[in-house]
Fold this protein.
Amino acid sequence: MIRIRFHGRGGHGMKTAGRIAGTAAFLEGYYAQDFPVYGAERRGAPITAYTRISKDRILERGIFSEPDIVIIADESLINDPAANPLQGVTKKTITIINTMVNDIKDKFSILGIVNTIDATGLCLEIIGKGSAVSAALGGAACRIIGIIQKDNLINAVIKELKNINLPEELIEKNVEVAEKCYEILSPIIIQHGEDIPDSPIETITLPYQYPTMSSPSVFSSGNIIEKKTGGWRIFKPVINLEKCNKCWICFVYCPEGVISLDESEYPHIDYDHCKGCLICYEECPVKVITVEREIETW
Amino acid sequence: MQSDHTAYKRIKDISRDEFILPGTTVCAGCGGLEALRLAHKVLGNNVVFVNAAGCFTLLALFPYSPFKGSWLYTNMASAPAGAQGIRDALDILIEKKRLRPEEDLKVIVLAGDGSTYDMALSATSGAIYRNLDFYYFCYDNEAYGNTGMQMSSASPLGAKTTTSIPDEQSPMGTKFHKKDIFEIWRAHKPPYIATISPRHPVDLSEKFRRSMQFKGPKLFIALSPCPTGWLYDPSHSAKIARLAVETGIWALKEAVFGETIHTYIPSKLKPVEEYLSVQGRFSHLFVPVRQDETIKKIQDEINYYWNHTEIQK
Amino acid sequence: MARELLTGNAAAAWGVRLADVDYVPAFPITPQTEIIETLSGWYSDGTMKGKFVTMDSEHSMLTAAGAASATGARVFTATSSQGLLYAFEVLYSVAGWRVPLVMVNVSRALSSPITLEPDHNDILSARDCGFLQIHTETCQEVLDSVIMSYKLAEDRRVLLPVLVNLDGYYLSFTREPVEIPDADKVKDFLPQYKPDHASFHASGPMAQGLAVLGGYIYSYFKYQMHLASLNALSVHEEIAEEFYNLFGRKYGVVEEYKLDDAEYVLIMSNTFATKGKAAVEKFREIGCKVGLLRLRVVRPLPTKKIQDILKNRKGTAVIDQNISIGYGGIFYSEIAALMCNEANKPVILSFICGLGGKDISMKEFQKILDDTINASLTGNIPGTQLLYTDVEWAKMKHLLDVAGKPVI
């Protein structure tokens, strides 16, 4: 059995990537099982997708915590506690990261084999948009495991993207992306982790707690600021303050309120939270906001 | 703290205080959040939101809240009733001197179009009928957004949603007309109703400011461009909100005790095509085959509105 | 203290009045309406201070009640039958907010077919939502239970809403003598509600009822509700003792009627328990050692108490005035479950009676007792039995005939 875990944010298409891997394996004649776990239908929030591939009937169900392969849709997820993509990664795990960051294995002390691929760059080049990397990373997963032929990957990409009503020309471009990923990467021999004997579970008796604690309420108002959303960005707006005419437009139109004005009314972007929607860039009347590809988010 | 402006005339009248902090999981480029952020600047910090189930329910997610003020989740069909309970309780507790008057809060319903146009219509009608002193903020993204864009009765004619996919039987996608919630509300003659757009922040702010003089229901429908559901790049949210107003498909207006005034009248309406063609949810009206009849129908309805409505400013 | 003839509905309203309730959002439904009419009058003539508001539905009504309670007011509301079901999702929401409101349900059987008379499918549908449930037998108990419920709900160890159940018609519209406690004494018993876990005010912002993602977070909050509910058993004992000392009437979590030496136990709830007591008297006259266990606090269910009462008896008949379609009696399943690990347990028989307010006669009690004694002697335990007499069947056949559906 091969267990692949995909990590992404809403909009990355990791549910679809997991399904592409599942379908490709199924078309190849294997038993396959895939499913996503996410909170709500929204962009940017971390999601996880799971794919199991096996020669025999699969009796496992639900999440697994010891993946053979981990696919990470952007490196900002690595340190995001809500995503926790390195959970269960051992020296036998293969991790594929969509990133332009060099030395990412050392930087995050990732165990096992780490491969990087600039899937976003490929998508930007071929599709013209970099937000969804489903075909790229689905293709990457299929190649790494080494048991899936290219034509079955292509058929899986077409099937899954048709399923989400993508127009035909976009499907064609995605097929091209998937093929490219397939060609760039090479299969890696999967070393399954040894079965670690389960330690006995310790259950505790929950004490009664007064409803100040035990109702689903929050007293610390505005504490959501502790959560960083800067990792959502693919592109980063940069304001050239020298040419800024202090019109307030970017400050007013920012939905998140992450652009603040200093005492001299110059705007400053809170990059810890800017999601990179780029409304500021679009609306700046004097065009002093530029856009840079985010290389290392934060 | 409450904005002390006497009137909003220019963009620099907008408060620099923020009341909803970043870090939420709302989609990047959310037009609804932009409108809410601007509205909150006018309403100030002493508020309690009563949030019907919908996209904004997940603004707060245990153990985090983005709100500096208070917030209560209610079921999808009954946020206005929740507002009734809070408003009444605050009045009673102040009256009985168990709460100091300075502890009072403005009560604000937060609801999407699914709740507003469909499920909570009865509860809203009831609250208006009872002349409840509250604000109602509807973020209208014209579909059930939180569940992935299914058709609601706010979905406009010709829009593609996941439950009105264009096919041979109805190539235009949504075949029904958007419910006119403004007129449904207006029939109740509450003190204040307005439509707002996040791309018209001065108009938006001034409407909230004006509404604050009235005791009773004060209702707002915010056009909320939704990159995720309307299928466009998030950077275009403001542009699309502007096109909605400039093409006349979204009329900026208010009604004080039922008397409607348009607060912005485009000097010349842009063709609605300019609005439709930049959104993926209308792409089937243009490719592979241009659906002239549907586009014309949408345009005709806009023309009819602006030619046959007594437009006052 | 005054002693008057009051209906169950009037007694409920009196309980609310004496509890000095701040706020009543309401919606009419038969046979509950009299309660809110009475309260409406008292708020409008100034007898009660606060506000009464007619809402647009039970769903809105309970949302308003929960939100007002979450703001810090003492809140009451009432409904019945379809109204309770219309408010169903809100039951779970407001219980999760841990707000101590009290709600009366006047039991009425559920549609379809639509009817007006009582059974307990309505109230028992709400048994898993987090509201405590107190089921009452007499008009006096209704009044007392409403007052006691506020003290129970507002206790720091509980902080859950309470549903007080009373039967439509047999209690709601039935007058009997009721002692109305002195308002001052009730004030001593039930001081003003001072919320410190949840309230909305400017200087203390809070967000309430947040979404959670993750089963371990959800489980924590749900399990806390369960622990709070279980706490209510001992809190009820304390409150009942205090109530007894002040007002002279004693309420247990269950009522034990002539159980001391009883070999056979009838288990019942609500008003028909009175008829059960009459049957017990009759059986005792002929030397049969029968007693009655009346379920009063139904959530939390006092399982230990019931086990202690039932063990070492010869036979028990659970008389359910409800039916779980496709299973049988709801209380039977709970009693059978809580007794399943007891060593010396009685035979437990299941009877369904009183659906839609159908009467239960002395002859039927006789059959119940005969079957129970027989089962304890022979070990042959019959399955769930619906009590339906030959006379009723004859009348039913006639109606079918009139409806153009002759029985062949």
Remarks:
- The first helix of chain A runs from residue 14 to 27.
- The CA atoms of residues 226 and 273 of chain A lie 10 Å apart.
- The longest strand of chain A covers residues 46-54.
